[in-house]
Amino acid sequence: MAEQREQQQTRTRRRVRTSHSIEAVLAAAVGILDESGAQGLTIRALATRLGGGPASIYWYVSGRDELLDLAADSVLAGVLNDVSDVGGGDPIDDLRTIAVAMFDAIVDRPWLGAYAMRDTGQQVNSRKLYEKIGEQVMRLELSPRQCFHGTSAIVGFVIGTAADMGQEPPAAVVSGEMDRDDYLAGATAEWRALDPAEYPFIHHIVDEFATHDDRDQFRAGLDLLLAGLRLTAGR
Amino acid sequence: MAEQREQQQTRTRRRVRTSHSIEAVLAAAVGILDESGAQGLTIRALATRLGGGPASIYWYVSGRDELLDLAADSVLAGVLNDVSDVGGGDPIDDLRTIAVAMFDAIVDRPWLGAYAMRDTGQQVNSRKLYEKIGEQVMRLELSPRQCFHGTSAIVGFVIGTAADMGQEPPAAVVSGEMDRDDYLAGATAEWRALDPAEYPFIHHIVDEFATHDDRDQFRAGLDLLLAGLRLTAGR
DNA sequence: ACCTGAACACCGTTCAAGT
DNA sequence: ACCTGAACACCGTTCAAGT
User: Fold this and answer.
1) Which residues, at least 6 apart from B213, have a Cβ–Cβ distance to it below 8 Å?
2) Residue A156: inside a domain, yes or no?
3) How many angstroms separate the CA of residue A129 from the nearest CA in chain B?
4) Residue B159, domain member (yes or no)
5) CB distance B106 to B166 below 8 Å
6) How far is CA B197 from CA A29, A55, A179, B200, B203, in A?
7) Which residues form the HTH tetR-type domain (chains A, B) (predicted)?
8) Distance (Å) from CA B35 to C1' D13?
9) Chain segment B106-147, per-residue pLDDT in tens
10) pLDDT, position A169
């Protein structure tokens, strides 16, 4: 009789207890992150979005840190997929393609910069991406040590630059692009107001800064790094 | 009479109200950061250390974010001082010297990576360091645009790499080096356990990873970037 | 000018208990 | 196996009031 009621509940009764899955949890987390950034992703907000209580989250994840790591890694699956065909061309060109794909993903999702590629033990896609980059470097026929250094440098540069650019402006606005332009204009004005004798370099490049595009800036830096790598590889 | 009492209080009576200064606030903040990392720096912990209430902090600083920014920047004064004599030699060598000084500072204080050089509007020393790096790049006789890109690349690489290396391990230990070695050993073991067919690169460099030194790794990457810059400058 | 007291509106995390 | 309820021990920030 108890069994019968049990079955009836399972079959017909409206679920009173919400039930998720790790995929649903991470998808909801990414949704919140996209809307309100890392600051907005609270355990409680996530639980509310999933229709349950905060404690339920801890069944899927050990804590907020792991949640952030896994959410970031889940998004990298898309990047990995985008570059799945890369690997047959010139190694340096392939490296550029992969790095740009990663950068673009972080530009789309500024919160990614701080959590992507942090722990390859836990983050499967981060590890696969690291491997993928490393495999291109391997084709340059360098020593293991040089391979290791080259790969680390590329990853460090991509994540570092992207994280820096993806930072929320001091005023902490998580909205449209009007604010971004305002921020740039404000910073430019501040720079122009500096003493030219004390800040010759800043005055020298302030016009470039005023009109710069993050993507161009990233690519220019990446090309410097890749030029150095090509030089080291002697090809 | 009220004035008289006022004076007496000021002169002779034991102060019941604690009084600080922005310097004292930042010094205390740096102390907490060094001991317990960014997570440990709460407004309340800082107030307690200063012997006052949490609200008093807000007289000196607009909030926790600004506190972190200013604390980080205050530490960069030391770096700036360490490189004050740099600037007369080969531009690329000078750039390396400055970059290594910054890196070393962040290795000493892992929390620095996330807050240094974030907002040159508010962070005076960050701005001066950016200027200093830029001035060396200027000596390479590149276009303003190339100067801007080169300088940004170096800063991005230093901060990015250092921030990545300075991350607290997943287990979040803020203590000695035995833990750091344990962490490295654990990660190495995980890598060795991966399928060699799926992860040829990781297996190719795992021995390097196991014995690597963060500083060497940083310098190797920096040299790639500087080699690219030198190539672009044609000297 | 600079600080206190006290509150407001949150947090992450835990754990016994339920289903 | 997976979730709820309810609590614990915190947070950052504000603001009237004091000195």
Assistant:
1) none
2) yes
3) 11
4) yes
5) yes
6) 33, 40, 48, 6, 9
7) 19-79
8) 25
9) 999 999 999 999 999 999 999 999 999 999 999 999 999 999
10) 55
Beta carbons of B228 and A223 less than 8 angstroms apart = yes
Residue with tokens 């720096």: B41
Chain C nucleotides near the protein (CB, 7 A)? 2-7, 10-16, 19
Euclidean distance between CA atoms B185 and B178, whole angstroms:
11
Domain count, chain B: 2
Same domain, A128 and A226: yes
CATH code (residue A208): 1.10.357.10
> What confidence score (pLDDT) does residue B77 get?
98
Contact by Cβ (8 Å): B214, A149: no
Residue among A95, A84, A88 at smallest CA distance from A150: A95
Range of the domain at A18: 1-61
User: Which of B92, B205, B222 to mutate to probe the A interface, most A CBs <10 Å?
Assistant: B205
Q: Could you read off the pLDDT of B160-171 as tens digits, one per residue?
A: 998 888 775 544
Of A101, A79, A76, A98, which is closest to residue A89 (Cα–Cα)? Answer: A98
Integer Cα distance of B131 and A195 in angstroms: 12
Report helix angle A124-138 to A91-108, nearest 10: 150
The torsion angles phi and psi of B26, rounded to 5 degrees, stand at: -70, -40
Are A190 and B121 inside 8 Å of each other by CB? Answer: yes
Secondary structure letter of residue B181 according to DSSP: H
Per-residue flag: A53 CB under 7 A of strand D:
yes
- Residue count (chain B): 235
Domain assignment of residue A163, yes or no: yes
SS3 A165: helix
What is the rounded distance in angstroms from the CA atom of residue A136 to the CA atom of residue A117?
A: 18
Cα separation, B32 vs B214, whole angstroms: 25
If one counts every other C-beta atom within 10 angstroms of the C-beta of residue A1, the result is 5
Average pLDDT over residues A224-235: 94
